[in-house]
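With this grant's support, we have settled on a layout for protein records. A representative record follows, to show the layout.
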Amino acid sequence: MSLILDRSTITLAADHLRKGELVAFPTETVYGLGADANNDKALQKLYVSKGRPTNHPVIVHLASLEQMNDWCIELPDYARILARQFWPGPMTLIVKKAKHVSSMVTGGQDTVGLRVPAHPLALALLNAFGGGIAAPSANKYGRVSSTCAEHVAAEFGDEISIVIDGGSCPIGIESTIVDVTGPRPRILRPGIIPEQDIIEYSGLAQNTNISVGSSLADRVKNIRVPGSDKSHYAPSTPMLLLDKSAMRTFLANHNASTKSDQLTYAVLALSGCDQLLSTDQSSTLDSIKDNLPKVIRKYIQANIDPKIYARELYANLRKLDRLDANYILVEKTPESSDWLAISDRLRRAATHLHQ
């Protein structure tokens, strides 16, 4: 595997794609694992390397809005408005596919996801390649997404030929996926672009019969999209998602335990460790931190700004996953709209514990 650090070598990466090889590259959301979207052998290699079921669609990345016409049919006016407003950017549009689009891209569906990413290296690669690049997130299927080149290298080693190193992804969670196959837009996967912006910029806000559908029942409509599995984005270490009160009780009980086979935890919380670990109001923060090794391998206090939290989320989960703790404990995030995408990722990351 080569780590490409220089724009001048983008041409080499494009050549690898034309030869049917896999290339990982940065986007503003997460790193993508790319293959020529018109090459079924390359797509097969992509699915095998990622360990992804072949009925799960992948998003096609394009260099410009103008290329959208090559990949879709029956595009409503509001969809073009959304594309002009949010592309390049973290929005994927689900459209009716053109006849030539491979079923390996669509997961056997009659729709395809399209996106123009905002990262300069992604756009440079797309322009050099000249076609669509199918690119799910650059991680093993169902696991924590990669937000830097080192994450990709740790996941795949020599399974892929080139990783374009663009540093850390500035957004850090996957794109908002919007179904535009009907008379109104419907959010199928939340992302950093909020529902209200989609309503406003679609030009449909004044029509009371047309709005963005974001309820679970309204999202389904038989369209499968990336990241919609009940269990997804999950670290290898079992992960518990707890509200502040439940986490405080949980840690207090386990910290007081004297069992020799005591379990260990790695923690990601919005609250400070003094708020979650102190059972004695006279305890000082230093004394609380001194007790962390009893049950806690590492305590990460996350940023309370949802944009910064999102940017750091997958890197934080990967740090905690490397500690060989018995469990990762994550404090639930607020239920407000600006935390919706983060809450969605955390629920899916923890779901496998409750199946």
In short: The first helix runs from residue 10 to 18. The two ends are 37 Å apart (CA to CA). The first strand starts at residue 2 and ends at 4.
